[in-house]
Structures are given as C-alpha cells and as structure tokens.
Design goal:
six-stranded antiparallel sheet, three-stranded antiparallel sheet, 19 strands, 47% helix, flat
C-alpha cells in the first residue's frame, strides 16, 4: 500500500519547518488525510486487481465475467473451480514448511549464548501469539492477491499486571486497511509512515471516544463493493510514523558503544570504574510514534511507542519496481481467464448434452407388429432376447440413431484449459500429486523440485516478512523486557525453559555487581529460511545418525539421547532422559551443550572430592583384598608357630591377632560389597544391550538400533567382567 515512488516534499513558504517527513507534518490532521489519499491513489490499480482475485475465489459468481453472468441468467452457468486447489497447494506447502529465523551475534558484547536467549524469547512471543496461524492466513491471502501482512504490538500481560509483553497480531482485511508511504524495499522497511484503518460500530466509537465526537468515517479507495446488507460501521485510522532525533553516541576505551542520553547513569559508573570515552559522534535515532484519527479530527494525543521501525509488516509476492512504481500480484491473477473459459466451455458441454435428443430405435410397423409390449419397455425390461418381424422392405433388425452430439471444439478447448492452468501456475501434474506416467519416486521428486521453482517467490515473500518481524522483536525486546523478571524460553523442539533476565549478581572475581542475561548489550543479525518442519527434520536426524552409525558405531553411544529424542514412539522420551543422565555422569556431554541444571550439577560434583571411576575402584578393591588375605595368612602362621616359651607374649599377640583378624575380615566384607557394586555395573551394561535388542525388535527398525550397537554394550560388560576375573 502507498507504493508510489515519487519523492514528494511538502513545504510551505511561510514556514520552513513544515518540511515533508518532519514531526510538524504529522500534527496537521488535514495533511495526514491528504497523505492517506495519496498512498491510496498510488496503489489503487494494484489493490483493485487484488480485490478481484479475492472475489474470484470467494464470491459465489466470482469466477464468471459479470456481463456474461447477467446476460445468460436462463442458461447453465456452472463453476468448476480449478483455481482454488492451486492456491491450496502453494499455501499448503508453506503451512507444512518451517520458517526458522536465525539470530547470530553481530558485534558489541553479544555472544552465542545471548543469541540463543533472544531466539528462545522470540519463539515464546510467537507461540503465545499463535503467530504461525497468523503467518499462514496472511500467506494464503498473499498467494491469492499478492499482498497481506500482520503487526507487532506491545500490551500488558493481563488485566492485573504492570508487566508488558510483545505480541504478533493479525490485521483484519489487510488489503483495505493498510497503506504505506513511499518505499523501495520489498519488506517496506524503508517506509517513513503507514496507516492502519479499522472499522468499528458507532456504539463502540462512542464508548471509546465520547459522545461529543462527530463519528465521521475515513474514506476508502474502493470503486465499488461486492456485498450488501453489512453492519453500519465507522472507519478510523492509526498513523505510525518515524521521528528522527539527534543523539550522541559514545565509544568507551573498553570498546563498548552507548547512547549518552539513555545511559547517563551507567556512564558515570563506567567512568568511575576507570573506563573513559575515546570518541563520540552525533547520529539520528529513530523512534516510532502513533496517533488515532477519524475523518474529522484527531482522537488522541501523539503516543511514543517502543519501536524503532514501523511495527506493520507486509508480505508482497511477485514484487517488482518498474517505472518508479511498485507492482505485485498473486497466483490467481494469471488464472482468471483460463478459469472463465473453462467454466464457459464445460457449461456449454453440459447444455448441449442436456438438449440433444436421446438415441432411439427406428423400425417399420411390420417389424413391431405383435411385439409392442416388449419393444416399448426396451429401456426397462431384462429380456435376453428381443423379437421382431422381418420386413423385406427394410431388411435387417431395427437401427438405433440419434443421441447426444457435443461439439468437439468445446471438448478440445476444455482439455486445453487444463494445460493452460498448469503452465500459468507453474505447477505440473507431479507437483499437484498426479502421476499419470507412473514414474518412479525419484522422478516424481525431481519433477516436484522443478515445480517448486515457480512457487518459491511466495516462500521468499514470507521469509522476508518473518525476518523483518524477528529484527523488530530483537531490537524491541531490550526496551520492553528491561527489568529483572523470569522469562519463558521456548526451544526449537518445543522444550520449555525458564530464565531470569537482567538479574544483578555480585561477581566475586571483579568484586562488582554484574547483570546476568543482560538483553541490552550487543548487536545481532537476523535471517530467515524455509525448510522441512521439525517433525520431518526429526526423521532426517534419525536417518542420518543411523547411517553414520553403520561406519562408526560409537555415534550411537555418544548421541543416543539425541537419537531417542527424535523417535516419536511412546516412551522414547523417558529413555532419552535416562540416557542423557547416563551420558552426563560419564562426562561425555560438552559444557556448552549442557542445560543450566546440568551445569549446576557439574559444579556441585566438582566441588566435592573426586571419586575414582569404576575400573579404578575395582582394581583398588582387588589389591586391598589380596593384601588383606596375605595379612590374615601371616597372622595365622605366627599364632600357629608360637612356642610355649612365648605363651604369655603370644597370648597377648593372639588377642591382638584376633582383633586384627576381625578387622581384616570386616574389611574383606566391605571389599566384597564394592566388588558386588561393580558387578551391578556389568549387569546394567548387559541390561542396556538387552533393552536395545528389545527396542529394535519392538519397533522393527534394525537400521536404527543395529547389532553393532548392541554388541558395543555387551563388549563393555565383558571388559569389566574380565577385570573382575583377574
């Protein structure tokens, strides 16, 4: 909307401050209405074509030319919808795909961990907003008409809270509601202002803005309306505009770059800590403001928002800049004519078939004489033989003549239109699930890939919209979530974690208070790409792991928790949790891959005395046992070989020996218990091997859990068992 590319400057000679693009323009209600009308006029032709595409699909007689429909009310006018399924195919492909926004560090103090935190917050915002449904509905409208979109809003968490959240919200009837100022980029990110119109009832208008308002609607750009008997409503508008203000940017010796005005208090603390300003410059800082209005006057005062970009995101298909004008279209526009011709030819075929005389038997009176009853019931009786009289003047049996004769030209034209549909939509038989040639799966996949080249432009439009949405959220999150609070973090796989952001803690090393999970530091880069859904990628992960495991079986042992997590069979999540715990205790999981809970456990373990591993404990137990047995033999020998001369001394020694013998036996008993514990480890290894064997047989997937992996656990048990026998 508002796609005119001519650079217009609004300037009054008496006041040089009223230059186009400055705040003073947006204070003038009359000028704002003129700007809205200019935006509507600049995109009037595109919007009319887009409306026609919507009506073509949704209106009951939309797939017929109005003149023909009205002039042939007494003739067959059937609709054989071939366009709707094509829209369904392209939209359905997008709904089955997953559009993943990637957030990576791009400078400052940003880290990969911060990027993952932002990604988790963005996913949670989208999840709480049902953003995927909003994206899907807007994408379907974009495929149909070429343009649609959504918006980002700031709102309170609930009616009883002072904390605010960001949310993605749909825009009802985007086609007639949203208009942008001049822009050149396909995502409209360079527009300076935009309008969002809303239609409400008169009662709601009075409740919101008072009885003293005149309730005057804003004009729209529609030439005509397709529907009648609608609710009487008032159209109001909300203008979002960017205001640029000069700000001083400071670079500190530490490399940190801050805004002097926003960080005045922090700057004093940094200077006191020894950091100094090395250079500064003036930059224009963007802030987005909004204001409500109707056709008569303003409805509220100017409101500053938390955004630095216009929070209205369009998705535009087949975007092209030509002759300083932006043009766009959906997939329906190129299918209007083939569909209308197809409806006409098929309706004519039906009409000709219906009006053509039925096929009849022609015979003489002599041939039918005496057989009138059976001949009259030729269409209903089940007689295997039909008798007739021979007539020398008309030899042979009665002949059937007549029947429906449809113009071959109509049938040929209908068939041609099917081909035209496929070519116009860049979708061919294999792309639409048809396999007339009975090709192999590989051949079908290649044909589908070729068909995707014709629809990828719709995917790219959605990618641009989601990428811009993510950029706005990333830049706005630090301004909304600017205090200490707990945040729900959503993982890519749907897992939920809770983190405390902006949490001040005392750093023992620097002896200063630091902010943990500080969302205001660093810069990030955002991109978006479409790919298979998470469920499909789970299947790909399982296939990839098992394929690699055929070459390196240790992959299963090191990544079995990942493997089990990607299996959708019941109970696999519990097995994955147990395996994860086992791998954690074995020290296989890298620190950067550990969860916060696992990191805390690791710190607790490290703070405790290090316990030797199973092999060391087993070897120590065996040595201690052997030493104890030797000591026992020595003491028994000394007692047995004692003489009468040393009776008194040996009596005392015997008492000491008995005590020592008792202590040694006690020690041996403890060592035996330790050995039994090691044997339980062996049994656990064997149990795991048997469990894997059972899972393999249960799910019927030897390629996932092969014999090599089972043997690996058995060999591990054998090694421990051999060490016991030594």
């Amino acid at each position: 909307g508002g796609l005119r590319m001519i650079e217009e400057d609004y300037k009054e000679d008496s006041d040089s401050d009223k230059e186009y693009g400055k705040l003073s323009v947006y204070e003038d209600h009359k000028k704002v209405l003129e700007m809205l009308k200019d935006s509507q006029d600049a995109d009037k032709d595109n919007r009319e074509a887009a409306r026609e595409a919507h009506l073509f699909l949704d209106k009951r007689d939309g797939q017929w030319e109005p003149y023909w429909w009205n002039a042939n009310s007494e003739r067959p006018r059937y609709t054989f919808d071939m366009t709707g399924p094509i829209v369904d195919i392209v939209s359905g492909e997008m709904e089955q795909a997953e559009f993943a926004a990637s957030i990576v560090p791009a400078g400052g103090e940003s880290t990969k961990e911060d990027a993952r935190l932002f990604a988790g917050i963005v996913r949670n915002i989208e999840d709480q907003s049902d953003a995927v449904d909003i994206y899907n509905i807007a994408s379907r409208n974009m495929v149909t008409a070429g343009i649609d979109g959504w918006k980002i809003v700031q709102k309170y968490i609930d009616d009883d809270s002072f904390e605010q959240d960001l949310a993605v919200e749909p825009i009802a009837n985007f086609l007639d509601s949203v208009w942008f100022g001049p822009f050149k980029k396909p995502d409209a990110s360079d527009a300076k202002y935009c309008f969002v119109l809303e239609s409400i009832t008169k009662d709601e208008y009075k409740d919101r803005y008072g009885e003293d308002k005149e309730c005057q609607s804003i004009g729209d750009s529609r030439v005509s309306t397709a529907y009648i008997n609608k609710v009487d409503q008032v159209t109001i508008g909300n203008i979002f505009y960017i205001k640029e203000e000069p700000r001083e940017l400071l670079q500190l010796r530490s490399g940190r770059v801050i805004d002097a005005e926003e960080n005045a208090g922090v700057l004093d603390e940094l200077i006191q800590s020894g950091d100094v300003v090395v250079r500064s410059r003036i930059r224009n800082k963007k802030e987005v403001y909004s204001r409500l209005f109707d056709g008569k006057d303003w409805l509220n005062e100017e409101q500053e928002t938390v955004f630095r970009e216009l929070p209205v995101i369009p998705i535009i298909a087949n975007y092209k800049l030509f002759e300083n004008k932006i043009i766009y279209r959906g997939i329906v526009e190129k299918l209007l004519d083939p569909q209308r011709v197809f409806n006409y030819t098929k309706s004519r075929e039906v009409e000709e078939c219906a009006l053509a005389p039925r096929a009849k038997y022609w015979m003489t009176a002599k041939q039918v004489a005496g057989h009138e009853d059976t001949i009259a019931t030729l269409n209903t009786n089940a007689n295997p033989v039909q008798l007739f009289n021979v007539d020398q003047e008309n030899p042979g049996p009665p002949q059937q003549n007549g029947g429906a004769q449809v113009s071959p030209g109509l049938a040929t034209l209908s068939l041609d239109m099917r081909t035209v549909f496929q070519q116009s939509a860049s979708l061919f038989a294999a792309s639409m699930g048809d396999n007339p040639g009975l090709q192999s799966g590989v051949a079908i996949k290649q044909l589908q890939d070729k068909g995707d080249t014709g629809t990828i432009k719709y995917f790219k439009a959605r990618e641009r919209g989601i990428a811009r949405t993510t950029r706005i959220l990333v830049s706005t999150i630090p301004r909304v979530y600017n205090k200490e609070r707990q945040m729900r973090i959503l993982g890519e796989d749907g897992s939920v974690d809770v983190k405390t952001i902006n949490q001040p803690v005392f750093d023992q090393q620097s002896q200063k208070m630091v902010i943990v999970n500080d969302l205001s530091k660093g810069k990030f880069s955002v991109s978006c790409s479409a790919g298979p859904s998470f469920k499909n990628r789970q299947q790909e992960t399982v296939a990839a792991i098992t394929e690699i495991a055929q070459v390196d079986p240790s992959v299963i042992q090191m990544g079995s928790d990942i493997l089990f997590n990607n299996l959708s069979s019941p109970g696999m999540d519990l097995i994955a949790q147990r395996k994860r715990q086992q791998l954690f205790m074995a020290g296989v999981i890298p620190v950067e891959q550990m969860s916060d809970e696992e990191k805390q456990k690791m710190q607790q373990i490290q703070s405790q005395p290090q316990q030797p591993d199973a092999a060391t404990l087993l070897a120590t137990a065996e040595i201690n046992k052997a030493q104890a047995q030797a000591d026992k033999v020595r003491v028994d020998a000394e007692i047995a070989q004692s003489s009468e001369a040393r009776a008194n001394a040996l009596a005392n020694a015997k008492i000491e020996g008995d005590v020592q013998k008792f202590m040694l036996e006690k020690f041996l008993k403890l060592e035996d218990q330790r050995i039994e514990q090691q044997k339980s480890i062996i049994e656990a290894q064997n149990t795991m091997a048997r469990t894997l064997e059972t899972i393999k047989n249960a799910i019927g997937a030897p390629q996932i859990i092969g014999d090599t992996n089972v043997e690996a656990y058995k060999k591990a048990a054998d090694l421990v068992n051999q060490s016991l026998d030594m």
